[in-house]
């Protein structure tokens, strides 16, 4: 559906305004769909993001600073998210032997198994979750990367 119809705004100042509003609207739409999908696994989107990062690090540990650096939502409270994941036995925290002030965070076997279930469920697959084909997604990725390349 066109953004004009979604938000009931037939006129925009220009194509830039329309694109920015469309991007924000679409981002929120995607986040809502993702949150609904993760709810069935007992996860929030930020928790899934932390687990995804830890799986990429596995078997090496991560620190809270590394998690914050790699998180998609930089405003999320990584320490609190790790607390919740630890309560669910999806991650462990241990004092780093090389630096006793640092804490090593690792994904557990249960965390890896949960991510495997998410992967197998197809909730993140492109099939049925998006009307764009692979070439269009490639073009979209290029344009989004280009949009952020203003420095």
Automatic annotation (TrEMBL):
It comes from the Bacteria. Residues 1-149 form the HTH marR-type domain. SMART domains: HTH_MARR. PROSITE patterns: HTH_MARR_2. Coiled coil: none annotated. Signal peptide: none annotated. This is MarR family transcriptional regulator. It comes from Hymenobacter negativus.
């Amino acid at each position: 559906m066109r953004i004009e119809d979604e938000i009931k705004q037939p006129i925009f100042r220009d194509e830039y305004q329309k694109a920015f509003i469309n991007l924000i609207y679409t981002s929120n739409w995607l986040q809502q769909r993702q949150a609904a999908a993760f709810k069935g696994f007992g996860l929030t989107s930020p928790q899934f993001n932390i687990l995804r990062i830890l799986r990429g690090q596995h078997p090496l540990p991560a620190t809270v600073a590394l998690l914050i650096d790699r998180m998609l939502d930089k405003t999320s409270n990584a320490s609190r998210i790790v607390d919740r994941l630890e309560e669910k036995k999806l991650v462990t925290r241990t004092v780093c032997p090389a630096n006793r002030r640092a804490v090593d965070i690792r994904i557990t076997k249960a965390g890896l198994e949960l991510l495997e279930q998410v992967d197998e469920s197809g909730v993140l697959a492109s099939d049925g979750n998006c009307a764009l084909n692979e070439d269009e997604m490639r073009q979209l990725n290029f344009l989004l990367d280009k949009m952020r390349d203003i420095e």
